[in-house]
Design a protein that fits this description.
- The protein is globular and about 60 Å long.
- By secondary structure, the chain is of the alpha+beta class.
- α3 (124-133) packs across α9.
- The longest helix has 20 residues, at 273-292.
- The strands form three sheets. The chain has a six-stranded mixed beta sheet, with helices on one face. A five-stranded mixed β-barrel has the order 7-8-15-11-10.
- β10 (143-146) and β11 (152-154) form a beta hairpin.
- The N and C termini lie far apart (63 Å).
- It has nine helices and 17 strands.
- The protein has two domains: 4-95, no CATH class; 100-292, P-loop containing nucleotide triphosphate hydrolases (Rossmann fold, 3-Layer(aba) Sandwich), CATH 3.40.50.300.
């Protein structure tokens, strides 16, 4: 089978994907078709998917490689797309050192940026979905890519990878979760993808200065609460969520201190998604109106 190669500019991140397995190319393209380009960019993350047999619908192994290095070897086709997305994330960390990279979701509204830093399991992807349902614009659910000079957070509008436990929550929000294919990711189990462009075509946000920093922690059955914290504490905690602090070294905290200098910073206990989103919006907007009114 002849190789196919597609190129994508997904916000700040460029990807070139090659494979002789048309189904994998088509699955990825179905998520990112509006970002497809005719030519690769010089800084594109180059990825190749290989099947070690003649028939790509049969059991693997499937190899996901970049720059000649094998990144993942998986046995089942329903593991390929989650691993492909995972590997692209790792390459973003390796290649896009021009940004300060935080492990955080990022959104914006009215040119004001919100970042939601947190480890896996903190609920940031589900909270992001809830805010998108309420009209926020999307930057990313995995990275806050911050320009260290302009201090703006840039978009990498990747599809949200939702765990099975979040399926009913996403359904309750009325969002179009793609789960026809039973994808599987080792760290999450069964997953499905939420394509932000399925919510609305203009969902991608613009580069924005950070106006709010909210550290979420999901507590099942808990009462949502929001507590303001000092900016100095927020900057320190953000540095602990920085993927590439080794690049900026001692300057990491200084950059992050500049990021939060004009931001309101909070610690969030998240519970029921609609109640949590209403709480977040009411506090954040009230603070803005208080300062600008």
């Amino acid at each position: 089978m002849r190789d196919r190669q597609y190129h994508f500019s997904i916000g700040a991140v460029n990807v070139s994907l090659r494979s002789s397995c048309s189904s994998f190319i088509d699955e990825y393209s179905s998520l990112y078709a509006p970002y497809r380009r005719h030519r690769p960019e010089d800084d594109a993350i180059a990825v190749e998917i290989k099947a070690r047999h003649r028939y790509p619908w049969r059991r693997g192994p499937y190899l996901i490689e970049t720059e000649g290095e094998q990144a993942f070897r998986v046995q089942h086709r329903y593991e390929v797309l989650p691993h492909l997305e995972w590997m692209i994330n790792w390459q973003v960390i390796r290649q896009r050192q021009d940004y300060v990279q935080l492990h955080a979701a990022a959104l914006e509204i009215g040119g004001r940026g919100l970042i939601l830093p947190g480890k896996p399991g903190s609920g940031k992807s589900t909270l992001t979905a809830g805010l998108l349902a309420q009209g926020w614009s999307y930057l990313c659910d995995e990275f806050a890519l911050i320009d260290p000079e302009a201090l703006a957070v840039h978009s990498f509008p990747r599809a949200l990878c939702m765990k099975e436990a979040s399926f009913p929550v996403v359904d309750g929000l009325g969002l179009p979760l793609r789960r026809k294919t039973p994808y599987h990711k080792p760290t999450k189990g069964r997953v499905a993808f939420l394509n932000p462009l399925d919510i609305r075509p203009d969902v991608e946000g613009r580069p924005s200065r950070v106006r709010w920093v909210v550290f979420p922690k999901y507590v099942s059955g808990g009462r949502p609460t929001l507590e303001m914290i000092p900016r100095s504490q927020a900057a320190f905690e953000l540095s602990r969520q920085c993927f590439n602090s080794h690049v900026y070294r001692a300057g990491t905290v200084a950059v992050l201190a500049d990021v939060v200098r004009s931001a309101d910073c909070y610690r969030l206990t998240a519970g029921d998604i609609e109640t949590t989103c209403d709480l977040v919006e009411s506090h954040l907007f009230r603070a803005v109106f208080r300062k600008t009114g």
